[in-house]
Amino acid sequence: MQTAPTPKSNTLPGPDDITRVKLDNGIIVLARPNFNSESVVISGFLANGALLDPDEKLGLAHFSALGLMRGTTGRKFQQIYDALESVGASLGFGAGQHTTSFSGRALAEDLPLLLDLLSETAREPAFPPDQIERLRDQLLTGLAIRAQDTGDMASLAFDRLVFAGHPYSRPEDGYTETIQAIRQEDLVEYHRQAYGPRGMVIVVVGAVQPLEAVAQVQRAFGAWRNPAQLDLPVLPQLNPMERTITDQLDIPGKSQADLVMGVVGPSRRSPDFMAASLGNNILGQFGMMGRIGDVVREQSGLAYYAYTSLNAGQGPGSWEVSAGVNPANLQKTIDLIRMEIGRFVREPVTEQELADSQANFIGRLPLSLESNNGMANAILNLERFDLGLDYYRRYVGLVRSVTPEEVLEVARRYLDPERLAIASAGPQSS
Amino acid sequence: MNNSITKVQLSNGLTVLLKEIHTAPIVSHWIWYRVGSRNEQPGITGASHWVEHMQFKGTKQFPAGVLDKAISREGGTWNAFTYLDWTTFFETMPADKIDLALRLEADRMVGSQFNPNEVSSERTVIISEREGNENEPLFRLGEVVQAEAFSQHPYRHEIIGEMADLRSMQRDDLYQHYRRHYVPNNAVQAIAGDFDKEAMLRRVRELYEGLQPGNLIHTQMPVEPLQDKEKRLVVNGPGETTYLQFAYRAPAASAEDFFPFTVLDSLLTGPTGLNMFGGGGVSNKTSRLYRALVERELAISVSGGLQATIDPFLYDITITVHPRSSTDEVISAVDREIEKLQTEKVTEDEVKRATKQARAMFAYGSENITNQAFWMGYSEMFATYDWFVRYIEQLARVRPEDVQRIAQNYLKPISRIIGTYLPDKSTEASHADGPNA
């Protein structure tokens, strides 16, 4: 086998140094070497997720994903974790709306072990009843803690407002009563129907030759077939908000309230994405949390954090502002943020602001690709959103081509200070 | 990972550590000051953390709001942290832009203005930060456990400070704290990444060697008396979940006992990740306490942690109690496991396993230049860089009898605090978590 050198430090990943192979059963394998450290990372997803969950058993995909590692037909729970922890390796699964993700890391010498465990847990989980009941207790305690977390609760309420009538309004980890309703047989059945090689993607980055990585994945997963594998349902249309809607959850005994407000945002594949992303950076990220951080934190001293995020995935995304404030300052903070959103859709960002954020995006790219994990997730996104293997080589041009007018146009397409979802959770103002 | 570095002390006392790494066109620059909550007296608790915030509020050369933007504009990431023993500021940037970080840190080492209006607006920001912390049951529990664990030593205070002090501290209290501790002879500069060592050192000298050293006043830290009786306390608060925290006095990081204690912690509660930046730890499902508590439905989760500190701090074990269990059952089970460590020697294999775990975590950490620069400065705060370089070797030398001795000497019931966070059902949230809530 040829020895591929570690790519030069100043080259961004591209078609000439990412190996991409489709196995006979449909699994896509991507690999890129990095011999600067003796470690290796795997990252990927399977094509099943919370979109398949029935309402009354919401959390089924999540429960199943976490149940995979609780025992397989060949190994008990303790044997799985003994194999991993003895060599300082880690492996985990988690379900989103469209996909069930997995990630793991190990010393390169232990990659075969890591792939064996990934294959065994994904393909042959046993969902042992005692382990499943223990996991259920852990999930329920997690939900009880979530119910006390002002940030989580504000975020849940926001999703219910902004995605009303759409599956994205439902949390992937479910609710107390839906987790209680899930039976062990449901997990077995979910796995039988939803897990399969079709749509699976796996990225391997680290101290292993790419062709060797592909061979190892082939050995672990090449024989997997599941003719019964379900397709994900088609997403329904999301109805736009017609006016501002608010929801204020009371969580007594806390010191601080969390606020999440915003709108539906572009999907990751939308042509609006890059302009929205740069606009978002100006609005609530750049420097000390952008314009919103400047007004809410720096000028008014109202909050330790006040920032925006653009969450763009397969379907409609969200464009949101988050802040943690004393409940007495909640309304004042909402008003300030609304004013900033108003300014953002009224007038274009300045040339300087845009140039700053463009330089920020371009300059930080190598930082985000520095670790194996950063690189693996970047390559995974290329595949997930069909960006093309040359995306990071084209990135500078894509960023630089955005104009202030485009940012304004995209901002106006999504943001409207008179039509916001505004959710908060915390103690009532005394 | 190649661990060789250059260490130089400038004529004004600034310690400079340099490490060339040419794997990516990136440089990470850190300035560490030997000041943290350890250096605060009652009345000014939280001053170190507040001063850290004020370092972003402007100098003549980089006025408020300019400095953070200047770094971001060049594609850098930056942040700052205040801890018990230290305060640190870092910038990781494209290699050809790193000069900005060097200039900026030299400037704010001496030139921060502490404008009274900025102090006043930052007061409410920090109070808001503290209120956010208070929302977390484990912050509230940890704060009282820490206060109970120390009667003399300043480690008794949370880093963010007492709310009363945050309300009353004045601009001059902060400015004096700044001037006293932010001096080159109280600082360590750590730079790692894609640069030429000689050129970098020349530039460091140009920018830093002219800064005046300060008159460092050596304060004798009060020696915390050994605890002779177990203490228990209860915090009530909202929620449904009960938490337990055990706190034992731990050795200082520079003490020989620190390494066998690390192995003990790894066996008892799982290996602790070493990588503050770019880490990712290892799970703890085969640890003794996970098996004794979680696998017997006594707890939902367990974690433990040993901190690398100048003076002896705390070894803590934090447990989320199972809703169908009780704190008494959990405490008895923990006691049984600790007793086992005290009476039965662990196996050679268990010690070897802890070393292999550490080796893997070192490899993960070395993928990332920011993390490598972090360790250069961090290890100097409580020991020397050599401490970090010899970490795995030191773990490998630990013998089963060392682990037993640590358990016998440090994990005595009389020398611990047990704190319980007990949910106060009367304040149960008025909403359900259901879809129609």
Care to give the gist of this entry?
The complex is a heterodimer of chains A (430) and B (437). Chain A has 15 helices and eleven strands.
Report on the architecture of this protein.
The complex is a heterodimer of chains A (430) and B (437). Chain A has 15 helices and eleven strands. The N and C termini of chain A lie far apart (71 Å). In chain A, strands 1-2-6-3-5-4 form a six-stranded mixed sheet, sandwiched between helices. In chain A, strands 7-11-8-10-9 form a five-stranded mixed sheet. Chain A has 430 residues and is an alpha+beta fold. Chain A folds into two domains: 19-221, Metalloenzyme, LuxS/M16 peptidase-like (Cytochrome Bc1 Complex, Chain A, domain 1, 2-Layer Sandwich), CATH 3.30.830.10; 245-426, Metalloenzyme, LuxS/M16 peptidase-like (Cytochrome Bc1 Complex, Chain A, domain 1), CATH 3.30.830.10. In chain A, 53% of the residues are buried. Chain B is an alpha+beta fold. Chain B has two domains: 6-208, Cytochrome Bc1 Complex, Chain A, domain 1; 231-424, Metalloenzyme, LuxS/M16 peptidase-like (Cytochrome Bc1 Complex, Chain A, domain 1), CATH 3.30.830. In chain B, 41% of the residues lie in helices and 18% in strands. Chain B has 16 helices and eleven strands. Chain B has helices spanning 47-54, 67-73, 99-110, 116-134, 137-149, 163-168, 171-181, 197-208, 258-269, 288-293, 327-343, 348-365, 369-382, 385-389, 391-396, 400-410; strands at 6-9, 15-20, 26-33, 77-82, 87-94, 187-193, 231-237, 243-249, 299-306, 314-321, 416-423. In chain B, strand 9 (299-306) and strand 10 form a beta hairpin. The longest helix of chain B is centred in the first third of the chain and has 19 residues, at 116-134. The radius of gyration of chain B is 23 Å and the shape is globular. Mean pLDDT of chain B is 92; it is low at 426-432. Chains A and B meet through helix 2, strand 5, helix 4, helix 5 and helix 10 of A and helix 2, strand 5, helix 4 and helix 12 of B.
